[in-house]
Input
Amino acid sequence: MPMPRRKFLLALLGTVLAGPFAGSTGAISASATPDIRMLESVRRVGEAYLAQCPAEAVRSGLLAALEQALAGSGRAQTAERLKALIRADFSAGRTIMLDGWVLSVTECRLCALYVAA
Amino acid sequence: MIGNARNLLDGQLLECDICIAGAGAAGITLAHELSGSKLRVIVLESGGLNFDAEIQSLYQANLNNPYYNDPEASRLRFFGGSTNHWTGNCGPLEPIDFEVRPWLAHSGWPFSYAHLVPFYEKAQIYCQLAAFRYDLDYWTKQRGLKPLPLDTEIVTAGFAQPSPPTRFGEVYRSDIGSSENVQVYLNANLIDINLHPDGSHVQTVLAGQLDAKRFQIKAKIFVLALGGMENPRLLLNCDKVHAAGIGNQHDLVGRYFMDHPVVSAATFLLTGPSINLDLYREAPPVTGASGETPVAYAYLKLSDAMLRQHGLNNIRAPIIPASRLSASDGVESIHILGSTLGAGEWPDDLGGHIGNIVRDFDMVIEKFSRKTFNTKLFDSADDTNFMYSDVMIEQRPEASNRITLSSERDRLGMRKAAIEWKLADADKENLQRCLEIMAKEFGRAGLGRLRIDGERGGRTYGELLSYGDHHMGTTRAHVNPRQGVVDGNLKVHGVENLYLAGSSVFPTGGHVPPTLTIVALAIRMAQHLRQQLERV
Output
């Protein structure tokens, strides 16, 4: 039975974004426990991204953008592929500034997808 | 010898080969270098051997910017000058700083970095530093530490060496005091420069004390080593022959005044606990047979390739651990609301500030508790999950930033300085672009994320802005008298025997504290003056 999409997204976010987003400040700030902090950060980044890029506010569009980027990756490889994509975003200058944080477009899309899911 | 000008007679005339005004890092180095030569040297020092509030008050100036540091607090007017309270952060300017940079107006020194290297090497000794090495390979091997795995073609590490810090007045007092050819006069304020009526050379200078006693010095060569504000102030005050002041035929004296603004500009969130930042932290000196040797520490900067590609002026970004409390947005919002509402205004983004306070409420309470009751409530307030950076930036030379004369006079009858200083929007934009490049490289390297802490309720470039108190550029060097007050030998254009020492001659200031360069230039000047006078 396939993993529900939201649960899968959470697992991905935990793997890909836990490092960057845990325990930080501002747009990706949090309090209390690390998990809640991270999800609060993800939600804020996702909302800020959707506000800044309203053209991508449709869930299907976000999914399509990510699926295109991940084309050919198996589920097991997805997390590593996403990490590589995020680094490639920084390398190519595909970044966006949210509340001062310089973030990759891919990680912002992931967060936005979580908000939209 | 170190004597007291109070023992001189009113109206007395002293004669020497070289008269140096000012006994700070530049003046003391110059005198020390000339000690032992056949030249008779007189050094005039405004203060005594210790702080004197009455003498210090001669630094009083009028400031146009309420946030800029008052020189009466940032300078010291006694033997040793401001080295009596400097922090000792040392390094040479970089080779690119000496070049004409097409993207930076008024850039370019009259000589190259390579020319200055032998003098820098000797300056290291004056400042009690380690070997003249500031490169990544050397210090990573010396300290046995690795730098952050960044692409050094994009973001690299610069190094600073900490001087003990050398108190020039204390360290070199004995040498100068026992010198047979150097005579220091304490309590000797330079008051006037008497030019020949045709303006071609200095005949004598007038010095004196607050009690109106005056004496004159006749010399072959005169050197002003009074600091980046006092050098131009004196030149502008001496207006008997040239109405605009000495060396000011092209309206350059006092202009292009620069400092090193220090901006609380960035927060680093580093991922992974395995990142070792020890190379970026100060370490105690190494004790060996020859005493203590300082250990350099690293900061982040952009590569020359990036600067050239993007037309940027460099910055130095140290990486400093920050606690959750010190980096709290909620606490910052409290400050902004307090200052803006207190001034009877509404802040921009009121909702955002309220949101920050609600989200960070535990840290807001923590701050209140610590401030009011001196009590810590939450251990997590001291968590250091991230780093911050107070970034020192190169300020571009702007003619509108300047030292002029106010209508008020000091107790010696000289007009006080009026200081006009502001940071150009282009410098703020330059900082933003540099940090964006750093942020992308951190992300690419998988090291973490960087937050650019932009303007916060008008405070970032207001009350939160701090300064190196490095006064530079006010008598800039250039081979063309239309573009510089002094030439490549640091002699005032058009005046054959008047030289200027110190950071007032810097055409540009880089991102590096200036003392090592000041000392190197003084050593170079000593060599030049000996060549000029000993060959006669």
